[in-house]
Amino acid sequence: MSHGMTTATAPLVQRVFQALSAMEFRSGEQVASSLQVTRAAVWKAVEQLRELQVPLEAVANRGYRLGPGYAALEPAEILQSLAPVCRQRIATFETMWSLPSTNDYLLGLSPPAPGKLHVALAECQTAGRGRRGRAWIAPPGGSICLSFGWTFAELPPDIASLALAMGVCTQRAIAESGIAAVRLKWPNDLVTADGKLAGILLELRAEASGPAYVVVGMGINAVLPADELAAIAATGTRAVDLQSLVDGTTTINRNRLIAAILRECVAGLLAFEAQGFAACRGAWLELDALRGRQVNVQRGNEIVRGLARGIDSHGQLLLETPDGVIACSSGDVSVRPAGN
């Protein structure tokens, strides 16, 4: 397995972020000494973190402390949390400070061998995107920006439904961490009653026949300050974060959650390879956030209103309209509950 950037070659702003803690104050002198840089360099990096909207507390004679729940990605902790059978499937595992898009990064790599995985994580994304080109806001430490690439020896017939299958796997991993309120909103969102928690974006590179390289990207709100939630709301989306879904004594551990997501998604990819979408359609229907609700479906310039009736065997949304039940594919449709 190949790894990404080492600590020694990482940008100073990343190294300072990794050296800080939400649990205790660390003085500029301590951080400077541990990183073998000047206190002025540490101060400059702290200012960069503030510009990136990382919540930081500074107290004279005590130093700096990260906001509650904030902690750096730790590749070693993620990999050690994986069972050996899962770890052996990872061909490359890279954790970077900043990328325009983790999906674009993996799409630029040569595909892994069938049955193997490329994994890319970024503390912050500058051009992350959701479905239909929407922006995904991700400040350092506050989100999970994860993409993984997988090669199918042959293009599965139900490949368009893979994003739904990965939604089921991600929900399972989140539920393992004690958060049971998450549901799936067709075609690619994880939501609660209070708003959107995560989105999944699937991108495909394949020929008409032969191997298919699929990159699955996910952005998950882990712990976001109020102003970031307001910024997301300004884009037209109500958002929630994982930290708001646990009790006040619990802190979300992004590294352990990422390991759980990778474990569930590898199992899900293998099941999809063997059985297609049938392997998880039942589980998806149980988590359907729209079933039985009036929804608006946008198709180009046309809006269709109807009652959501689950999904068919191909992962298409079934919509009950005055003209009968129609099936909507995920390629050209956006869905919002009626009234939004």
Instruction: Please bin the fraction of helical residues.
Output: 25-40%
* Count of helical regions: 10
Work out the radius of gyration: 21 Å
Extract low-pLDDT stretches: none
Number of strands: 15
Describe this entry's structure for a reader.
- The structure is a single chain.
- Helices cover about 30% and strands about 30% of the residues.
- It has about 350 residues and is an alpha+beta fold.
- The chain has helices at about 10-20, 30-35, 40-50, 75-80, 85, 100-105, 160-175, 225-235, 255-275, 280-285; strands at about 1-5, 55-60, 65, 90-100, 115-125, 145-150, 185, 190, 195-205, 210-220, 295-300, 300-310, 315-320, 325-330, 335.
- The chain has ten helices and 15 strands.
- The strands form three sheets. Strands 1-4-5-6-10-9-8-7 form an eight-stranded mixed sheet. The chain has a five-stranded antiparallel sheet with strand order 14-13-12-11-15, with no helix packed on it. Strands 2-3 form a two-stranded antiparallel sheet.
